[in-house]
Design a protein that fits this description.
Blueprint lengths: L17 E9 L3 H8 L12 E9 L2 E9 L7 H10 L2 E7 L3 H18 L6 E6 L11 H11 L2 E4 L8 H39 L4
Parallel strand pairs: 1-3, 1-4, 4-5, 5-6
Antiparallel strand pairs: 2-3
Length: 207
């Protein structure tokens, strides 16, 4: 089900809205796998950045989404910039049972902001493996504090039980959609102001 490179671009395919989102996993991409295949695989280990295309119904509207799983392994850090440029929204996923993976989210966030040059890019911080509470190394409070610092939402998921897996993807899709609508209004507003200024200039004459 791996996608082609063109899937990474924001497109309006066959007249249907298409959204592009990046899924950053540290160290595993199990959420994406569970969401697409509805099956939990204990030993799933991504070896490269994978792209998936899926049609979903978002608030009564059928939309096509492209999900890019960047794998989160250092071997691919050099090519992440290209993926980040194409992404419209980001799920930054860490394991609540691994403090190191939580620490890595700060580097991902910094890299995204550097590439996108936009602190308000749609972004969710996601703590995975909520079913392993007895092995928790990252407290809810600690994760929420980081999310608050970034002005983003924090959600805990379990790919094994599917708890909140759909939620984080749909929440991000709504953020992306809202951002696209906001950008469209701003763009149309600029066009109207430019058109008005042009008409005023055309009506003016020098005596």
């Amino acid at each position: 089900m791996a996608g082609e490179s063109k899937n990474l671009e924001t497109v309006w395919a066959d007249g249907e809205p298409a959204l592009t989102m990046n899924h950053l996993s540290t160290p595993r991409s199990i959420n994406t796998y569970a969401y697409l295949l509805v099956t939990f695989v204990e030993d799933y280990e991504p070896t490269k950045a994978d792209s998936y295309r899926k049609k979903v119904v978002l608030d009564g509207e059928e939309v096509q989404i492209d999900i890019l799983d960047t794998a989160g392994q250092e071997d691919y850090a050099a090519i992440r910039d290209n993926y980040f440029r194409s992404g419209e929204g980001f799920l930054c996923v860490f394991s609540i049972t691994e403090l190191e993976s939580f620490a890595a989210t700060a580097d991902f966030r910094e890299q995204i902001l550097r590439v996108k040059e936009d602190e308000n890019v749609p972004f969710l911080l996601v703590g995975n493996k909520s079913d392993l509470e007895d092995k928790r190394q990252v407290s809810v409070e600690e994760a929420k504090n980081r999310a608050d610092q970034w002005n983003v939402n924090y959600v805990e998921t379990s790919a094994k039980t599917r708890a909140n897996v759909d939620k984080v993807f749909f929440d991000l899709m709504r953020e992306i959609r809202a951002r696209k609508m906001e950008d469209s209004k701003e763009k149309n507003g600029k066009k109207k102001r430019k058109s008005l200024a042009k008409r005023i200039r055309e009506r003016c004459c020098i005596l």
